[in-house]
Structure formats: C-alpha cells, structure tokens
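Lab notebook: predicted structure, single chain.

Context: the supervisor wants predicted structures on file for every construct in the current expression panel, including those that have not yet been purified. This is the next one on the list. No modifications to the sequence; it matches the entry in the shared construct table.
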Amino acid sequence: MKQINIWEYLMLDSFDVEMPFSKSKTEFISYSRKNNIPIDIPTEMQIVVKSKLLFLDVDFFISFQFNGERLIAITISPNTTVEGKTLDCRYKKIQKALENELGYPHNRLRSIMNLLDPDNRLSYWKKDGIKIEHYLLNRFGMEEIINITL
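Prediction complete. Output recorded below exactly as produced.
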C-alpha cells in the first residue's frame, strides 16, 4: 500500500490522518487537536507526535520543526532501540517502504559505500527543493533516522 504523496504530507497511520507540510504551526496544533492526535511541544520550535508510518508495524517519533509558523524540517525515528540483525532487518524494511513511495535513491555511488560500511548507511531523494534522507549512523550507538528538509 502507498502513502500517495510523501512530498506534500505524512500519513499518520495510527490516526488515519494526513499531516500536510503546508500547515502553519498554529494550524498544525489546531488540526492535531481536532483529529485527536496527542502532541508534545518540548520547545517553541518543535512538535512531536508518535505514530506508525508507511504502513509498517513500527512506531515512530515524528518531530516537526518550525521556524516561526513555517514548517522547515521533519525528523522521524523508530521509538524503540534495537541492535544487530534486528536493526538491519528494520532498516531494510523501512528502506523498502521508502523506495516504494519515492523510487530508487538518487545516490547510486552511496549504495556501494553502504555495502562496504553497513554501520553508516545513507539514501536520499530530492524533488522541488525537498530532500528526504534515510540513514543509519553510529554516533553514540546506532541511530536510524528519516529526515525531511523542506
């Protein structure tokens, strides 16, 4: 099943609601409350939601980052920490779901590097000034992140 247009909104599967990227922070908060979506506002520039995405059985923390009223970025990470083969399996499952939505990543050379250094994988897609990245990074332990920059 497809999300339809990840370039314009995120489908929050847990709530069966589309979160358009075009909403201002005020509209975003109002829309969330109207649709019974629990939100956390840890800073003036950030709104966090917990939901399933991409029709996967994975709960994600989704951090919507604002500059004033304008949405500028979204950082998505699974809410559970896993390691080893479980992490590798989850990364591949999320990567496959992203490829179903977005097509093959733009960075073919990076695909080779991902095979050589599996602890530091990166795939990205670009369209109309929007960049979507999915990466696995070993900083202070393994982190898996999807980052959408608007």
